[in-house]
């Protein structure tokens, strides 16, 4: 079994249509979808249970409260390991990540361990973003690349595919970050451990419904965690990363 993991919190307005789009893609017929919901008060879990494929290809992992993106992915990755999943894809529930791109991410795993859907390699782009948001994202990624010495262009990307063996090597259950810095942490771990990482160009579309979960607290967590990881890297040394891009 292969798996698409979608963490949710208050995504009742988007999750149903996303599940429909995934199931309409013939190349994804072998994939199950695991929705990890943090007790959304808007009834996201009910929307998942109401889907026609619930209990078959659509699965639901309900958690007791809002514990953060990193905690949701740790729970999902542990679930995947228990069920001997072969490939794990992670994506957002708000429609920003296009499910039609999943086959390209999975295909990139033929000669890599981790495939990152990147906005910032040739062929990648964002749609409906203000120039201010583009600037913040670019500066944030530049900061991460500079401080951690990462060759990945889109360190904060949340659209990814992993080989099961890569998740075991990453020991994702031992990660620390709870917010969006979880994406940075797994990128940092992957490169330090010498995993083969590839960036695949994607089109990132601004959400059309619901509210962003980004907060100033999440940004602060990312800033200070990056400095902590840099300090550890300086003390422990670094492995030579293997990262490349795929042209569109």
Kindly describe this structure.
By secondary structure, the chain is an alpha/beta fold. The protein has a single domain, classed as Alpha-Beta Complex (Spore Coat Polysaccharide Biosynthesis Protein SpsA, Chain A). It has eight helices and ten strands. It has helices at 15-23, 44-49, 69-82, 102-108, 131-148, 164-170, 181-192, 216-236, and strands at 2-8, 31-37, 58-62, 87-90, 114-118, 125-127, 160-163, 196-201, 203-205, 242-245. It has an eight-stranded mixed beta sheet with strand order 3-2-1-4-7-5-8-10, sandwiched between helices. Helix 1 (15-23) links the parallel strand 1 (2-8) and strand 2 (31-37). It is globular and about 45 Å long. It starts with a strand and ends with a strand. The model is unreliable at 235-243 (pLDDT under 50).
List keywords for this structure.
8-stranded mixed β-sheet; Spore Coat Polysaccharide Biosynthesis Protein SpsA, Chain A; alpha/beta; single chain; about 250 residues
Under the CATH scheme, which architecture would be assigned? Alpha-Beta Complex
Q: Strand fraction band?
A: 15-25%
Q: What's the CATH H-level superfamily name?
A: Spore Coat Polysaccharide Biosynthesis Protein SpsA, Chain A
CATH class (first level) name: Alpha Beta
> Per the principal axes of the C-alpha atoms, what is the gross shape?
globular
Structural class: alpha/beta
Mean pLDDT reading:
89
**CATH topology heading:** Spore Coat Polysaccharide Biosynthesis Protein SpsA, Chain A
Biggest sheet: strand arrangement: 3-2-1-4-7-5-8-10
End-to-end Cα distance = 28 Å
Radius of gyration: 17 Å
Sequence of secondary-structure elements: EHEHEHEHEEHEHHEEHE
Question: What is the number of helices?
Answer: 8
Percent of residues in helices comes to 25-40%
Question: pLDDT below 50 for ≥5 consecutive residues: which ranges?
Answer: 235-243
Number of DSSP-assigned strands:
10
Q: What is the total number of structural domains? A: 1
């Amino acid at each position: 079994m292969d798996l698409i993991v979608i963490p949710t919190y208050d995504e009742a307005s988007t999750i149903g249509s996303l599940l429909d789009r995934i199931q309409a893609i013939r190349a994804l017929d072998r994939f199950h979808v695991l929705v990890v919901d943090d007790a959304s008060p808007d009834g996201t879990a009910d929307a998942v249970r109401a889907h026609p494929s619930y209990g078959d290809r659509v699965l639901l992992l309900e958690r007791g409260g809002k514990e953060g993106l990193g905690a949701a992915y740790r729970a999902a990755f542990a679930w995947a390991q228990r069920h001997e999943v072969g490939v794990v894809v992670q994506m957002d529930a708000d429609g920003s990540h296009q499910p039609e791109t999943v086959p390209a991410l999975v295909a990139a795993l033929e000669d890599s361990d981790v495939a990152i859907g990147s906005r910032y390699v040739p062929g990648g782009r964002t749609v409906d973003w203000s120039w201010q948001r583009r600037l913040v994202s670019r500066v944030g990624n530049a900061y991460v690349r500079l401080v951690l010495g990462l060759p990945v262009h889109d360190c904060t990307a949340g659209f990814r595919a992993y080989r099961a063996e890569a998740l075991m090597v990453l020991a994702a259950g031992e990660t620390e970050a709870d917010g969006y810095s979880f994406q940075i942490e797994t990128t940092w771990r992957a490169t330090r451990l010498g995993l083969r990482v590839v960036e695949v160009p994607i089109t990132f579309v601004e959400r059309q419904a619901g509210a962003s979960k980004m907060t100033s607290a999440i940004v602060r967590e990312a800033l200070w965690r990056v400095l902590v990881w840099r300090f550890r890297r300086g003390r422990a040394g670094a492995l030579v990363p293997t990262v490349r891009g795929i042209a569109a």
